[in-house]
Amino acid sequence: MRECQMSKQWWKVSLLGIVMVVAGCSTTTKPEVAVSTSPVPVAAPKDVWMNQFEQLNGTPYLYAPIYVAEQERKSILKQIKSASYSSYDERKDYQIDIRNYMFVHRDNLSAGKLLTNNNSRILELEQIGEPFPPSKSNTDAMNRPSGVKTVKTLWYVRAEADTNADKLLSDLDRKQIGISDVSGANYTEVIKDIDKILLVSRLGIDRRVVIYTSGDKRFVANIDIPTRKATIKELPPIN
Fold first, then answer.
1. Does residue 219 lie in a domain region?
2. Beta bridge partners of 158
3. Which has fewest Cβ within 10 Å: 53, 98, 136, 159?
């Protein structure tokens, strides 16, 4: 009888050890993310608009944002009332609700959208590629158009759902970082569940190091842009 009780106790201890080992492995390889609210999808706007195509330097592609027309009208009215309305190119302080991008090949006239629908909001678009060589007239390459001589890939920050229950899509919601070809094709999510981006360190055209928060945890990610893969590690707690 005593041997049977000891056997049961040993079995419980062994089971606890297995659970702890499995839990430890899970935390190391795939950190759990605390979600404060349930993500709520936001319906795609019925009234969208698109204009002002621009060139992606060093490529045959033109691109234009697809945005919520109502937000554009509100921004224009605000600028007119404040007597600061000018040309489209000078309205850099607009907070336009961009939902998608259209890409057009200038030679064969093929066209396509970045995303299949307009349900998410694109908060940031960065053109990644070979920088302009420095010159005597302008040593600051970032002052040139897009700061890139030849665009290789496109980098996005995107909000997919209303995670803070304010019925809007904004930088206050959880975000993801994604990468696409210069044609807008092959969009790939590389990091998700981002609450706040603390740092983006740009190392050439092939690598980014991103530090961000997700729930009450902090992470550092090494992103290999050509392969569109991220190595993510959790930072030690600060308390």
1. no
2. 122, 176
3. 136
CB atoms within 10 A of CB 99: 24
| pLDDT at 224 (0 to 100) | 98
Q: Is the pLDDT of residue 214 over 50?
A: yes
Q: Which domain holds residue 176?
A: 42-78+96-130+146-195
Q: Which two tokens stand for residue 90?
A: 């000078």
Q: Is residue 37 part of a domain?
A: no
Q: Report the domain count for the chain.
A: 1
* Structural contact between residues 154 and 127, judged by C-beta atoms closer than 8 angstroms: yes
State the Rg of the chain over Cα: 24
Higher pLDDT among residues 110 and 44, named by residue: 110
Q: How far apart are CA 223 and CA 219, in angstroms?
A: 13
* Residue 227 within any structural domain of the chain: no
Instruction: Measure the CA–CA gap between 23 and 69, rounded to whole angstroms.
Output: 48
CA distance 42 to 197: 22
